[in-house]
Amino acid sequence: MNTESDKPLPDQWSQKAQPGEKLFHLANKWRASPAFMADTTRLFAAFGFAADDFADQIVVDVGAGSRLRSRFFAKARLAAVEPLADDFVGEISWCDLDQAESLYSEPAEKMIEPLRGQASLVMCINVLDHTYDPQAILDNIRSYLRDDGLFLLSVDLHAGADELHPVALTRESLAQMLGKARFEPVRAYEGLPGSPYYGHGWAYTLVLRPSAGQRCDVDAVQPVRLRGARWGWAYRLVFGAARTLKRLLKPNP
Ligand SMILES: C[S@@+](CC[C@H](N)C(=O)[O-])C[C@H]1O[C@@H](n2cnc3c(N)ncnc32)[C@H](O)[C@@H]1O
C-alpha cells in the first residue's frame, strides 16, 4: 500500500509530463474516431480476452486516458482512475469517462480505499512510464484485486526517460517491482497487433495474478510475438531518421 500519497507531486510529472499529456489528449484524432474502439477490440483479443468476460464484475481501468478502453468489457462494472479525469470530462466533447460507474480524478499512486479487494480485473495500458512512483501504483493495484483477480499490464519498455515519460522501464526493473508487489505471470506478449509499441520503445504485456511470494519470474512465460513486433526494425529506421532530421533542422537557440 502506498503510505506516502500526501508527499508533494514531483515537479517534472506535474509541470511537464501531465500538461504535455493533456495537450496530447485534447488534440488526439484517433481517440475521437471509431478506429479507437476497433483497435482496442483487436488489442484485447490479441491479449486473450473476450467482450463478455467479467460480466457484472468490477474492472478497474488505471490511467484510463480520455476514452475508456475498458468499455470493451461490455457487461462489466467499470471504475477508472485517471489524474486528468476532471479536465478531460470538462474539456473534451467525445470523452466518455463519465460512463464508468466510479471515476477517480487522482494519480494511481494514491490508494483508493473503496476499490480495495473489489476488482476481477485491473488493467493498466501504456501508463506506468508516465507516472512518478510505479512501485506505489503496482502495490495499490495488488490490493484492489480479488484473490482470483487478474492484472493486465501493458507498457512500452525503454531504458531512457524523457519529459513525457518520467519513468524508464526495462524487463528487469518491471520484474523487480512486480515481485515486490507480489504478482506472478500467467501469459505475456511482445509488440502489438498493428505496431511494435504504443509510442516508442518496445511494447511488452503481462497478464498476472496475485502471488504469495516476492519474486516475479517473467521468463517463466514465453511471450507470444504479436504481428506488430515484426516491424520494430522498420519503425526504428523511419522514426529514428525523422527524429535526427528534426534535430538537424531545428535552429540553434
Ligand atoms: C498514453 S495515455 C494512455 C491512456 C489509456 N490507458 C489508453 O491506453 O488509451 C497515459 C495516461 O496515463 C495517465 N497518467 C499519468 N500519470 C499517471 C499516474 N500517476 N496515475 C495514473 N495515471 C497516470 C495520463 O494522465 C494519461 O491519461
Task: Characterise the protein shown here.
With 253 residues, the protein is an alpha/beta fold. It has a single domain (11-249), classed as Rossmann fold. Helix content is 31%, strand content 21%. Strand 4 (119-125), helix 5 and strand 5 (145-157) form a beta-alpha-beta unit. The termini are far apart. The model is unreliable at 1-6 (pLDDT under 50). The chain binds S-adenosylmethionine.
List the helices and strands and how they pair.
Blueprint: H1 11-26, H2 29-32, H3 35-46, E1 58-62, E2 77-81, H4 85-91, E3 102-104, E4 119-125, H5 134-144, E5 145-157, H6 171-180, E6 183-190, E7 202-210, E8 224-225, H7 232-249
Parallel strand pairs: 1-2, 1-4, 2-3, 4-5, 6-8
Antiparallel strand pairs: 5-7, 6-7
The structure holds S-adenosylmethionine.
Residues 21, 63-65, 69, 81-84, 107-109, 125-127, 130-132 line the site of S-adenosylmethionine (SAM).
List keywords for this structure.
21% strand; binds S-adenosylmethionine; Rossmann fold; 7 helices; alpha/beta; 31% helix; 253 residues
Order of strands across the widest beta sheet?
A: 3-2-1-4-5-7-6-8
Largest pleated sheet: 8 strands, mixed
Question: What integer value in Å does the Rg equal?
Answer: 18 Å
- List ligands, each type once: S-adenosylmethionine
CATH class: Alpha Beta
Helix content: 25-40%
Report the CATH topology name.
Answer: Rossmann fold
H/E element sequence: HHHEEHEEHEHEEEH
Number of domains: 1
User: Unreliable runs, pLDDT <50, ≥5 residues?
Assistant: 1-6
The CATH superfamily is Vaccinia Virus protein VP39
The total beta strand count reads: 8
